[in-house]
Specification:
With 342 residues, the protein is an alpha+beta fold. 57% of the residues lie in helices and 13% in strands. The protein has three domains: 67 residues; 93 residues, Butyryl-CoA Dehydrogenase, subunit A, domain 2 (Beta Barrel), CATH 2.40.110; 172 residues, Butyryl-CoA Dehydrogenase, subunit A, domain 3, CATH 1.20.140.
Length: 342
């Protein structure tokens, strides 16, 4: 697709989702988004997930992305992938070879079987397909996002090991991780962009000492930080498609988390008391950011992965530059926090 075609797809998706943000799943099915994902995965992901972050659509299309990346044939319709426990990237289940699997992860709500990445007693990775298990008590931070904790023992209907898949399950899981992280990176960048936009509008309209808040140097510097890390995250998300590998996807997700963490800290401060009210939309984006940031690996886990990749030399020079910028920014933040506590 050329740029005009991509823009047309994005515009059509925006119109469809704006009309029914609470029925995003049905909208995507009617739109033919799954077919687009099969034919043009980059276009499908880079047009949909920014809109999900901007419009705060109900539910998530992440399962569709993960299942398409897995390429596992014969799965029942509306299969949900059980993601690792928040903040991690290790498989979410343990298979005991007795037709049951112990789960501890997160998944999308809704009817349908569960696909659980798990390890067996020998430490080998495989996939188990089974029924629903108990949902842990407690309210999610953002109920509209549709993510709930899954914990308990689940009966297994089908086991997909290397023989059943025809390839190493570890490679399948790495593809799923990479695809999911790329998608989440786009959505997080859009959430950070929305927080930045509403804050810029706020500081332009509010006045103090006869001047708009946005004219003060301290405010400009803080918003410049938000803009900078948003630009880095956007570049990393686009660069992750160059090789489609796990390292570049981890970098994209780490940069996107950096973007939203900076935005939610700075923007809530600059919005002042209004940013703490239910009437203002900021809390909706804050909740979505806090929900998405730990999915498929939190910041600490991603940094450990990237550090190992940098030491191994498996990241290209251009991606390494982005990774070093992210690491320097994180180190600077840590130093500032230490000085403030001191």
């Amino acid at each position: 697709m050329d740029a005009a075609d991509v823009a047309q797809v994005a515009d059509s998706l925006r119109q469809a989702l704006t009309c029914a943000p609470a029925d995003a799943d049905e909208v995507l099915t009617g739109f033919g988004w799954d077919e687009l994902l099969d034919d043009e995965p980059r276009v499908a992901v880079s047009t949909l997930f920014p809109l999900c972050g901007e419009l705060l659509t109900t539910g998530s299309a992440l399962d569709r992305v993960l299942l398409r990346a897995a390429g596992i044939e014969g799965l029942p319709p509306r299969t949900h992938v059980v993601l690792p426990a928040l903040g991690g990237h290790r498989p979410s289940g343990r298979y005991d070879r007795r037709d049951t699997v112990n789960c501890d992860g997160v998944a999308q709500t809704g009817e349908g079987p569960l696909l659980v990445p798990c390890v067996d007693p020998q430490g080998e990775l495989l996939f188990a397909v089974g029924g629903q298990v108990g949902v842990a008590e407690g309210n999610p931070i953002d109920p509209t996002a549709g993510w709930v904790r899954i914990r308990g023992t689940m009966p297994v209907h089908t086991v997909l090991d290397a023989d059943a898949l025809g390839e190493d399950p570890g490679q399948v899981w790495q593809r799923m991780l990479a695809a999911g992280r790329r998608a989440l990176a786009y959505e997080l960048v859009a959430v950070g962009t929305a927080m930045e936009t509403m804050t810029v509008e706020h500081v332009r309209g509010r006045h103090q000492f006869g001047q708009s808040l946005g004219s003060f140097q301290a405010v400009k510097h803080q918003l410049a930080d938000v803009h900078l890390w948003r630009a880095v995250a956007q570049l990393a998300a686009e660069a992750a498609w160059e090789d489609g590998g796990p390292d570049s996807a981890a970098l994209a997700k780490a940069a996107a988390v950096r973007c939203t963490k900076t935005a939610r800290a700075v923007c809530q401060q600059l919005l002042g008391g209004m940013g703490f009210t239910w009437e203002h939309d900021f809390h909706r984006y804050l909740r979505r950011a806090l929900t998405l940031e730990p999915l498929l690996g939190g910041q600490a886990d991603l940094h450990a992965e990237l550090g190992a990749a940098l030491r191994a030399g498996s990241i290209s020079d251009s991606l390494a530059a982005l990774g070093q910028a992210e690491a320097v920014g994180q180190h600077t933040d840590s130093k500032l926090q230490e000085e403030q506590h001191a």
